[in-house]
Amino acid sequence: MRTHDCMASILHALLFATTARAFYLPGAAPHNFLRGDQVPLFVNALTPMLTGSDDAKLKSLINYDYYNPRFQFCEPEGGPQKQPESLGSILFGDRIFNSPYDIQMLEKNGTCQTLCVKRGVTPEDAKFINDRIREDYALNWLIDGLPAAEMKLDTRNGDLFFDMGFNLGNDDGPYHVLPALNNHYEIVLRYHSPAPGKYRVVGVLVWPSSIGGSQEESPTCNTENPAPLLLTEDQTHTIRYTYRVTWNESDTPWATRWDNYLKIFDPRIHWFSLVNSLVIVVFLCVMVSMILLRSVSRDISRYNAIDLSEDVQEDWGWKLVHGEVFRTPRNPMVLSVMVGNGAQLCAMVGVTLVFALLGFLSPSNRGSLATVMMICWTFFGGIGGYISSRIYASLGGLERKKNVFMTATILPTIIFAVVFLLNLFLLGAGSSGAVPFGTMLLIVLLWFGISAPLSAVGAYFGSKHGAIQHPVRVHQIPRQIPPAPKYLRPWAAALLSGILPFGAAFVELYFVMSSLFASRAYYAFGFLALTAGIVGLTTATVTILFTYFILCAEEYRWHWRAFLTGGGSAFWLLAYGLFFWASRLSLDSLSSAILYLGYLFLLVLLDFLITGTIGFLASYWAVRRLYSSIRID
Ligand SMILES: *[C@@H]1O[C@H](CO)[C@@H](O)[C@H](O)[C@H]1NC(C)=O
Ligand SMILES: *[C@@H]1O[C@H](CO)[C@@H](O)[C@H](O)[C@H]1NC(C)=O
After folding, report:
1. Highest mean pLDDT range out of 269-278, 295-304, 536-545?
2. Which ligand ends up closest to the CA of 35?
3. Counting atoms of ligand 2 from 1, which one is nearest the CA of 250?
4. Cα 243 to averaged position of ligand 1 atoms, centre (Å)
5. Which helix (H) or strand (E) holds 153?
6. Cβ 101 vs Cβ 24: under 8 Å
7. Which ligand is nearest to the CA of 191?
8. Distance between CA atoms of 166 and 413, rounded to whole angstroms?
9. Would you indicate the residue range of the signal peptide (predicted)?
10. From ligand 1's centre to the CA of 246, what distance in Å?
11. Burial, 225: exposed, middle or buried (Cβ in 10 Å; 0-12, 13-18, 19+)?
12. Shortest-distance atom of ligand 1 to CA 191
């Protein structure tokens, strides 16, 4: 079973990688049904949901399997069967099973049907269910790749949109001491007929409701003010699950069936954020080019002119440290490993965004984003090894083999350790979110079986190309460093410089966080790509600026500072993550809190590596340009 899962994942991953160029992705081709065809309904893990109102908070981060026995949902004959999923989909928490719902295209329209009657629901189960309802858990169903949604009204512009998932129950506060469990589902399936006799599913809506009273009688499916079904926690209960399917014709064609789901975000906010970021970037670029073009060219001409006219003269500014700038920094090993891994991550993000922009990561391919990211990460091991070994040689490092080994193993090991620890907490909480053993094995295989060897190959080419030549030689005896102004101290510089890239990404970040943690759909990839580009550009310019400042202050240890200054936005990301926790989450359980902190830590770490690398490489380039333009006697 495990190896089978694993094989299926590999196959799916490879399939995805090879067919990504063909226009129809697996799962993206329309499925035509004939009248009376079985329309399978799949069930996914239950997730905590952000309920409609704006000040709603997410109460948990833990997913539960639909067939967790404590929920007492009806199972299909022969037991639930796991559906094949892509690697990314599993990593992002999808656990898809089949279900006993009997749905046939255009048949039994509006007929009240009983799914099953569950007897012997114990008080412990009742308590478990009630707790999950209080935490706003939602059911996630899939029909023909479309998630079942609740139709909601956007209060800002009066548009109707589909909010994925629907409530497990109702916790309407004052009237009920106990929450009501939804045991009846009004399923409205919208279909579109592209040709006579052929039908396609283009919308899945569910209105859940709670029907109390005797659960043993034949059902009426009467949803007009029924007494709710309350599960008291002192006796055994019987629950009757009923459903009614209504087929509604729709003129939405198959190609645009996702539009309703993705309407959640107001594009004006994205535009606002983008314009805001653009203003910052233009402002910055003007500032930097002014400083760099005017002061630097003035510096250079003065350096070069004075030399000609006078025999004895005193150097000043950044020229003073020309014999120091390429001195080996402390811990060149750690720095080059970080830059190598950062470069690998940069390449991964870049290519993933290109894929997203080209529309390959369509929402009907669940988890395609994470799958593409994993595959890119794996195959870009070569880039990491190459950059790391060249930077290491340029910094004057001598332990080449150790560098190759550390580049290939350190970061995967750290990430793995964190994920493993989080997994333990998830397992402890009985969650289905824990990454299955087979998937873990697959990831180990990808990382240590493909990525690490590629990294070694990259390192081989890197050491063949050798160290980058420096325009000036390093003096034998290090110079004294005068005390730097306060704002140029490493941490101050990192925090100051981090504000700009963070500010540029701020609004987009909110949506990304909501989609990561509150399972909201995120498909504003155009905005995301532009924002990422702006963040990269801002990081590079700001870091170059700060490097110039510290060199002018005769502080020549710029290597680590450039990395730290570039990675400054990560500290703001951390602060923002904590703010997000305070404002949008109210996590009661320890496991949820640890989970959140663990994921946040990974996010911050990756951001630090990526932006730090951008800052370091940009500064390296600028420093080399700077010192190759002056004459040194
Ligand atoms: C199903 O019933 C609803 C109302 O009960 C009706 O509007 C709809 O047209 C029916 N669909 C079909 C395919 O008969
Ligand atoms: C289904 O169609 C009926 C009749 O056209 C309409 O009254 C009802 O609102 C539709 N339901 C949905 C969910 O679109």
Report:
1. 536-545
2. 1
3. 14
4. 16
5. strand 149-153
6. no
7. 1
8. 38
9. 1-22
10. 6
11. exposed
12. 13
Pairing of strands 166-167, 169-170: unpaired
Q: How far is the CA of 250 from the centre of ligand 1 (A)?
A: 11
CB 332 within 8 A of CB 620: no
CA of 190 to the centre of ligand 2 (A): 9
Top pLDDT among 37 and 308 is at 37
Rounded-to-integer distance, Cα 603 and Cα 621, Å: 27
**Residue whose CA is at the smallest distance from ligand 1 atom 6:** 248
Burial classification of residue 200, based on how many CB atoms lie within 10 Å of its CB (0-12 exposed, 13-18 middle, 19 or more buried): buried
CB distance 117 to 239 below 8 Å: yes
Ligand 1 atom nearest residue 247's Cα:
11
DSSP state at residue 309: H
For residue 16 and ligand 1, the question of a CB distance below 6 A is answered with: no
Give the mutation target among 188, 201, 248, 250 for probing the ligand 1 site: most ligand atoms within 8 A of CB. Answer: 248
Determine contact, residues 229/183, Cβ cutoff 8 Å. Answer: yes
What's the whole-model pTM score? Answer: 0.87
- Residue 188's DSSP bridge partners are 205, 246
| Both structure tokens of 629 | 């333009």
Handedness of CA 161, 581, 615, 552 (dihedral sign): positive
Distance CA 188, CA 169 (A): 19
Output the CA 207–ligand 2 centroid distance in Å: 13
Report the percentage of the chain scoring pLDDT > 70. 91
Nearest residue by C-alpha to atom 7 in ligand 1: 248
Helices (DSSP H) in 112-167: which residue ranges? 123-134
Amino acid 453 reads P
> Distance (Å, rounded) from C-alpha 565 to C-alpha 554?
17
pLDDT tens profile 383-433? 999 999 999 999 988 899 999 999 999 999 999 999 999 999 888 888 888
Helical (H) or strand (E) element with 308: helix 297-309
Ligand 1 touching residue 110 (CB < 6 A)? yes
Q: Is 111 in the pocket of ligand 1 (CB under 6 A)?
A: no
